[in-house]
Amino acid sequence: MTTTTANQGGFVSLVGAGPGDPDLLTVKALRLIQKAEVVVYDRLVSDEIMSMVNQDAELIYVGKKLNHHCVPQDQINQVLVVKAQENKHVVRLKGGDPFIFGRGGEELEKLALESIPYEVVPGITAAAGCTAYAGIPLTHRDHAQSVHFITGHLKKEGMDVDWNGLAKGNTTLVFYMGLKESPNIQARLMNHGLSGETSVAIIERGTTPRQRVLTGTLDCLADLATQAISPSLIVVGSVTSLHKELNWFDN
Ligand code: SAH
Q1: Could you tell me if the CB of 97 is within 6 A of ligand 1?
Q2: Less Cβ around it within 10 Å: N or C end of the chain?
Q3: Are residues 134 and 236 in the same domain?
């Protein structure tokens, strides 16, 4: 047994909810949300998944508020600590995988500091789920020998990436949170030598009944991005040209 009950002390399960389709929850994630006492969740967790949560659980939303500001990370950390210290079994439910652009590590650092026991349940990350539902294999012997997951929040995080390393022909690039930065992504990749003819795809609301896949070439990525809404994933690389042939998910 990895989980504890209330009378054994507080416990936090950091759980990935996958990209949207409730059928992509892991069996373990389902089991945990059905018996959680507190569920702390954010914007990317779909309503269908929330409807599967234990009806008696206390639900705490920590996604963007009405004024569009995120709940600061230290406040989220504090909620987890306080609820666990009340001896509750807390499920921290996050879209996709908690360790892929999900700040799961930051939350665990705080729990570790406070000596609160925890477990991590991985989820299907958007890059894997959305491309599968779009008929885009992330690797393919004829197209891509590697795949990169990259945050589009480059400026916000005050860091840059190795554009030279990314602008190679035989790799697949997956940008999370990239819509606003798409002009920069397009320009940087082309300036570092990636052909403007490279195929790209934007997968909007992947794995849900409202999934949309927009396709084009790198030299029109920024234009394409103006037609998409969040959450969307940007995929750059010749594997995206397979979407038309391999698309199986009717929407
Ligand atoms: N931890 C999450 C990612 C959180 S960052 C995971 O592993 O998937 C949020 C970004 O993920 C969004 O801006 C978008 O780029 C991507 N994303 C998440 N769910 C998505 C979906 N259903 N369709 C398209 N993109 C998605």
Answers
A1: yes
A2: N
A3: yes
Beta strands in 27-82, from DSSP E residues, in sequence order: 38-41, 58-61
Quick: pLDDT tens for 187-213. Answer: 999 999 999 999 999 999 999 999 999
Instruction: Based on the fold, state whether residues 97 and 168 are members of the same structural domain.
Output: no
CA gap 9, 217 in Å, rounded: 54
Q: Of 67, 98, 121, at which residue does a domain stop?
A: 121
User: Which atom of ligand 1 lies at the shortest distance from residue 176's CA?
Assistant: 15
Q: Give the span between the Cα atoms of 35 and 208, in whole angstroms.
A: 25
Range of 41's domain?
Answer: 11-121
Q: What percent of the chain has pLDDT over 90?
A: 87
Domains identified in the chain, total number: 2
Asked if 136 and 199 sit in the same domain, the reply is yes
* 185/2 Cα distance (integer angstroms): 42
Q: pLDDT tens digits for 2-46? A: 444 433 589 999 999 999 999 999 999 999 999 999 999 999 999
Ligand 1 centroid – CA 42 distance (Å): 12
